[in-house]
Amino acid sequence: MINVSTAVPNDNLIVERQSSILVKGRQRKNQLKCDAESIAGCVSQRACVYCGARVVLNPVTDAIHLVHGPIGCASYTWDIRGSLSSGSELYRNSFSTDLKENDVIFGGEKKLARAIDELVEKYKAELVFVYSTCVVGVIGDDLEAVCKAAAQKHGIQVIPVQSSGFIGNKSAGYRAACDALLRLIEPPGGPRPLNNGRLVKSVNYLGDFNLAGEAWIIKDYLKRIGVEVNVVFTGDSNYRDLKKAPEASLNIMQCAGSMAYLARRMEVLYGIPSMRISFLGLEDTAASLRRIAAFFDDPEMMRRAEELIEQETAAVRPEIERYREKLSGKKAAIYVGGGFKAISLIKQFREIGIDVVMVGTQTGREEEYQTLHDISDDGTVILDDANPSELERFMIEQGAHLLVGGVKERPLAYKLGVAFIDHNHDRKHPLSGYVGAVNFAREVYSTVCSPVWKYARDVGGGLYAAGNKALPER
């Protein structure tokens, strides 16, 4: 067991959480416990199983997304995403069976069947996703049977998403979504590796949800070097494009946390290899383009990749350097969903002169935390599945000027009088690629160097002004 008094900056922690927190330079990297259930009695920043599934599947643009449960589950995720579509806007609707007390007592299967009938009649969709919720897990409705009957009745695909809350955490929701996608893309006769019909120099782009059009930006880069994007999982995707997924030559993964399981299964079922890439920041964007070109072993593709990297870097480097001069020496804290994103963010912050003093994730795996440990500076706090109290405490102790996170972390930052960067799914500006690197630097500058923090300090609000630590100078 780690001695908290020497391992972390403050010893007032829930005892069971000790093994999920370390400081680089004080413990070995393999001492961090991760990829485990949240501690009972500790309200973590993790989302639920249903939310994890909805994150992955919601961007399928022409599907009916039907939530079988109370209305609150559907309203929680209704149209809060920045995912853009080049076609259907049906995914912008969030439908619910709106289970009531009588449905909980007597069952909701008939209500679900009627809801599917009404929606298919009105919207003529070829695909319906039906999400289970916690209540459905309690009352035991047979989603599989209802969806199978509806599919036969209407001659379309009606796919149950087993996302009730008692099967795990957000990671379990990712897997439930991937299982649903595997059912969707399975060809007639069952999955099998393609001996012919494989699209040469084509990729499936996994783990990009086209937030603010990011998938379109990366598609353009890949087209310029000679690579075709077969289908994106799941940004700006549709039923017919997803069915073509087994034809690709390579799967590339931006969000490995949500898509690693799908990539592994597609390699087994269809013989499609995969690689992790990241288009966050200048360094990772260039490295990813080179790795993709190297996979296809095409000298012309590699030449075009180098040409693109040189042109795009030259175009944005002066602006990045201007922000770097203004931001050099500031300190950032990171708390995001997946470990691979956290790794890219550390590199991206270094590109603009900012030191990362705290980093954590909701669903990071052991190998990702080992990488985070290796690339972090001594003294960096590394933590898995944090709770609000820990985030606040370590941000104060480490003197962070900025927190990058999701929707649940925003109030924590503002409560402390600390700048905040939104890396969640409801943002409206792209952060991928070279244009995203500039947007990221600009957003960091505008929030860290905002004059509002002077007034927060004058008013005396937030924990910094409450005697814990002086608010860092901007």
List the helices and strands and how they pair.
Blueprint: H1 4-7, E1 21-23, H2 49-57, E2 64-68, H3 71-76, E3 95-96, H4 101-106, H5 109-123, E4 127-132, H6 134-139, H7 143-154, E5 157-161, H8 170-185, E6 202-208, H9 214-225, E7 228-234, H10 239-242, E8 250-253, H11 256-270, E9 274-276, H12 282-296, H13 299-327, E10 331-336, H14 339-351, E11 355-361, H15 366-375, E12 381-384, H16 388-398, E13 402-405, H17 410-416, E14 419-422, H18 433-448, H19 452-459
Parallel strand pairs: 2-3, 2-4, 4-5, 6-7, 6-8, 8-9, 10-11, 10-13, 11-12, 13-14
Antiparallel strand pairs: 1-12
Give a verbal description of the structure:
Belongs to the NifD/NifK/NifE/NifN family. Pathway: Cofactor biosynthesis; Fe-Mo cofactor biosynthesis. This protein may play a role in the biosynthesis of the prosthetic group of nitrogenase (FeMo cofactor). Pfam families: Oxidored_nitro. With 474 residues, the protein is α/β, with parallel strands linked by helices. 45% of the residues lie in helices and 14% in strands. It folds into three domains: 4-33 and 317-466, 3-Layer(aba) Sandwich (Rossmann fold); 49-185, Nitrogenase molybdenum iron protein domain (Rossmann fold, 3-Layer(aba) Sandwich), CATH 3.40.50.1980; 202-307, Nitrogenase molybdenum iron protein domain (Rossmann fold), CATH 3.40.50.1980. It has 19 helices and 14 strands. Strands 1-12-11-10-13-14 form a six-stranded mixed sheet, sandwiched between helices. It has a four-stranded parallel sheet with strand order 3-2-4-5, sandwiched between helices. Helix 2 packs across helix 8. The protein is globular. It starts with a helix and ends in a 15-residue tail after the last helix.
